[in-house]
Write a structure and sequence with these properties.
The chain is of the alpha+beta class. Helix content is 48%, strand content 14%. The strands form 2 sheets. Strands 3-4-5 form a 3-stranded mixed beta sheet, with no helix packed on it. The protein has a two-stranded antiparallel ribbon with strand order 1-2. The structure holds zinc ion (ZN).
């Protein structure tokens, strides 16, 4: 995919309506990059989902510094866990060492070298973080975590429109990108009638919530 820089900067917000509009602009920017939520990591470390959600939420609500802090925390949690599994010893407590180790472990892959470079620069950046850097941090961190913790599908539960029984659907990895909206139609396992739901892949937060929306794999 072409890596053009998208204009993610939203207008300053004076009212809740402005906040909502800015949120949508930033969610669109995330959607453009097709950043797949790292469900493989969440499966290995349950609390990592909350860390990742906060990183993404801080970004979409216009708090890039908070977002990068949480993104780097998520990276540290993911790299540290893999380090301990592979090396059978406690992980180093600084992110630089963990990144060095990960680059070696992953065999200096060209496609992630740029990401590691950007993330290194953000660790001790002295100036305020730009929105564009926050989105890049989420993108590269998530790419790295998806390589370290691969997954194929995610199971999502949703209630039947007619009988309220819980049904499950498998969502392919490629569809699990932030901001994606999916229409799912299934035969209900209980009443055997056709049931439909709309899934929105976004951090589970007070976002716009339409009838029948569900949040995949929170
Ligand atoms: Zn049903």
């Amino acid at each position: 995919m072409a890596r053009r820089r998208v204009k993610a900067k939203a207008a300053p917000a004076d009212t809740w309506d402005d906040v909502r509009k800015s949120y949508d602009v930033r969610l669109d920017a995330l959607r453009y990059f097709r950043i797949v939520r790292p469900h493989g990591l969440f499966k290995a470390i349950e609390e990592a989902a909350e860390v990742h959600n906060q990183a993404v939420s801080a970004y979409v609500f216009g708090l890039p510094d908070a977002s990068v802090a949480m993104t780097l925390r998520c990276l540290e949690v993911g790299l540290g866990h893999r380090y301990e599994e592979v090396e059978k010893t406690g992980a180093p407590d600084d992110l630089f060492s963990l990144i060095d180790w990960s680059e070696q472990y992953l065999g200096k892959k060209k496609e992630i070298a740029h990401g590691f470079r950007l993330l290194r620069n953000l660790i001790h950046g002295e100036t305020l973080i730009k929105e564009q850097d926050a989105i890049e941090a989420i993108r590269h961190t998530t790419d790295i975590l998806n390589i370290l913790y691969p997954f194929e599908t995610v199971s999502v539960d949703f209630p039947c429109n007619l009988c309220s029984a819980t049904n499950s659907v498998q969502i392919a990895k490629e569809q699990c990108f932030l901001g994606n909206r999916l229409e799912v139609t299934r035969l209900c396992s209980n009443c055997q009638k056709e049931t439909k739901t709309r899934l929105v892949v976004s951090p589970p937060l007070p976002t716009r919530k339409d009838e029948g929306d569900a949040q995949p794999g929170a």
